[in-house]
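Quick sanity check, ATP phosphoribosyltransferase:
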Amino acid sequence: MLSLVLPKGSLEKATMQLFDAADLTVQRASDRDYRASIDDPRIDRVRVLRPQEIPTYLEQGLFDLGITGRDWITETDSDVVSLGELKYSKATSNPVRVIMAVPDGAPWQRVSDLPEGVRISTEFPAMTKRFLEQHGVKATVVPSYGATEAKVPDIVDAIVDLTETGSSLRKNGLRILDTLLTSYTELVANREAYEDTEKRAAMEDIALLLQGVIRARGNVLLKLNVAQADLKNVLDIMPSMSSPTVTSLAGGESNAVESVVAKRGVNTLIPALKAAGAHDILEIPIAKIVD
Ligand SMILES: Nc1ncnc2c1ncn2[C@@H]1O[C@H](COP(=O)(O)OP(=O)(O)OP(=O)(O)O)[C@@H](O)[C@H]1O
Ligand SMILES: O=P(O)(O)OC[C@H]1O[C@H](OP(=O)(O)OP(=O)(O)O)[C@H](O)[C@@H]1O
């Protein structure tokens, strides 16, 4: 049985939605309830905590399995096992980036242009210090507890912060100087728990369900019927994950075709399939895709 730790904050909503879609619904009385449960024989304890602290708790063995960002694994330099990237952030399926940014009008073009004594605010002081050292910049790193973008140019000269859509940077008149890290959300485990055969099998089951949901996102199943004479025309324009399934219908003159296709593009694909001779076209949502 596994103990699980899930992230509170930016990743919370997307994580709860992912577990729900993976048939691992996290049950809790309210979003202020940090002790939760999942009705699954492989999971006996669920806690919701800040992602900054999750890598350390996993390393210490306080939990077997958790979800956090690569940024916090790097910042805390934790020794944990990654079971893979889960491609979602707060708002999109793209990764976030830890970037160094300066005001639009600042004279610096590269990190090495930063003058000695430059003041940099960040929630990632360890990562920032390592990065500045690599670039030979002697700076004062000021710890931030949020709203980092709001501190330039009067409180500090530059920041190291997360960006996902770039909207916070734009709103605050900031320009990216360099990227320290591209960070995905990850499923991570305590090393000892991962070495336990039974626990590892349970972890891999959970990873498979979560990845299955992520893979299915943005895809739909298309099913259609087509006469033998039009089959080639339909198959010529039908995209698929590997190749479409074709089954001949009773009577032998007609075929059923099914294929997983990207949802994006279905608006032009369905009329094109119809024009190529397809009929009885169904578009069906997919909950999971497991390789
Ligand atoms: N758009 C985003 N902004 C911030 N963090 C994000 C975003 N998308 C994903 N994350 C991930 O969420 C984690 C940080 O979440 P958390 O809620 O603790 O930070 P925060 O948003 O800076 O905090 P706060 O709740 O104080 O605003 C990190 O691992 C980060 O990579
Ligand atoms: O590129 P964007 O899509 O704008 O997202 C990135 C912003 O979101 C987070 O801040 P949050 O709103 O959680 O507040 P915080 O700065 O107080 O942590 C992060 O720290 C960035 O400021």
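Posting the structure with no commentary besides this: The two ends are 25 Å apart (CA to CA).
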